[in-house]
Fold each of these.
Amino acid sequence: MKSEQFIGAFVFSDTWRDLGHFRSLVAAFQNYGINALITESDSYEEAAIDAVHEAGLRFYAGVACFSDHSSHFSTLARRPELWPVLETGELRPQMEWYVGIAPTDRAHQRDVLSTIHSIATRYPIDGLFLDFVRWPLHWEIELRPDQPRPPDSSFDAGTLAAFQQETGVRLPAHLVTPRAQAGWIRIRHLAEWVKFKCSVITRFVKEAGTVLKGAKQDAELGLFVVPDVDGRTEALTGQRLRDIAPLADLVSPMLYHNILLRQPSWIGEVLAPIVQVAGRKTLPVLQVDSNRDPDLTADWGPQMSVEDWRAALSRVKGRNDLAGIVVFPGTSLIGNGRGDVLKATLR
């Protein structure tokens, strides 16, 4: 990892509510070697983007494609048919802040594409990242060691109709419950089901890239992807890396080792096969710190020391086969020595 590479900081949208404080934050990032800011929202403050550019940093927007957690599940409340249905036939329960949205609904896809177009035409962004561009899975919790296999989804009526239309597979008429239909699909046509799930995500990524580039030709398209854990990830998320990596400019595996209850050494292990596919597009996201009060927001794993952060960085230090790194969350670099560790690593 060299200082001229992409060194990004992911921040949440509330960081620019106080523009003065935000400018100070950006200045601190610049001092630590950050050269790009990444965030996620449906709308932005142009003054905040200008502050990022004035400091010499690039600004990357982000869109939560198939999750409406930021709007407190208003989409699911308005359109309950988008609520994911598990293979058990039950609605997917809320897990912490997350539920997810069935990704096959064309009206919802169009809404997301419209948001991408609006952001790209309205704001002076340098790029845009697709987040939650996957089938429902709270992977940070559900893929922890010793957890049972996460239940597959979504077996809602709209998705099952799309599956049959695309694959030619026909559900037997006597199977009338989602549980029975899901069981039949997973026993008899699992390969077709997984291929279908992957094709849904791949098509959407391709379309999102076309919309973004059509609105702003030089904007970079980034993807946040779930790393492979025990060979489970692709079938659950529909993110087939070999298909979606060629469609993006930056591929960002979220290597949140501490949330996943893994050691920093896990980062290098899981990163290797991603680089084999995505090459120099690979832009890993590293966890900076844990959340000290998971009851307020989410369980980000046990307390994470500065030495643990240093060890995480050591897994990417000196590598020239990566696009760079993104630190998450960027605000955790401030006032605790972690920003200085990053600065020293970049040197």
Amino acid sequence: MQGRMLTALTRTLLYGSVAVASVSATYAQQPNPFTSPADVDAGRKLFQAHCSRCHGQNARGGETGPNLTTGQFKNATSDAGLFKVISDGVPNTEMIGIYRGRTDQTVWQIIAYLRSTSRRPENIKLAGNSGRGQQVFAGNGKCTGCHRVSGEGGRLGPDLSTIGDRRSPEELKADLVDPNARVEPRWWTMRVTRADGSVIEGLRMDEDTFSVRLMDANENLWSFQKRDLRSHQRIETSTMPSSTGTLTTSEIDDLVAYLFSLRKKES
């Protein structure tokens, strides 16, 4: 009786595993269902967490892994092929499958990110003009007050010197139109009220249980012990206003074209 039960259990486990593998294999033959800007961004983070040790932070190659931004892959010619390589690895090589807890969605998101890195700028037609966009950046857009390009500009927002390597035109436009949709903790702000009632607000540089450091709009650094404050508030929305209210549609398109032109110079 016990032997029959074990046999039945073994069959259940075996057939269950085959069924799961079959579902994944079938799923991998479909077009990538996760290609939105959010999926590309998620794929970038997954890649940096699990693949960058060999292939580099920007997928341009590392000590042991090849450059994956060319659009050509040694062991795969399709998204389905990439799905298998990322999931299972390549036998008799240093390429191992991604972590065991992965899901089909995480694999697809990494593929979406890899495909985004091989989009050559010369093959992407943009509605805007980068030359006019540079003028918008320094003029009506008022971007230089917070952002730096090639060492020029403010430090209250991300350095944009190579933003074209990290964000697609669609993502850049979304950042401009709805900046609150994606705010990394690095760019949260703090508002503190001191014991005398004065208020100081600025970029949250560091925070722990007992203290907080921030940089105000004049780029002055402040450090406080929380016990000495009347109150402190973390603000997780973006300090950048939506461009929709200040720029025309054509100016936004021009600004996107300029930002997308900001890329790392090839060596």
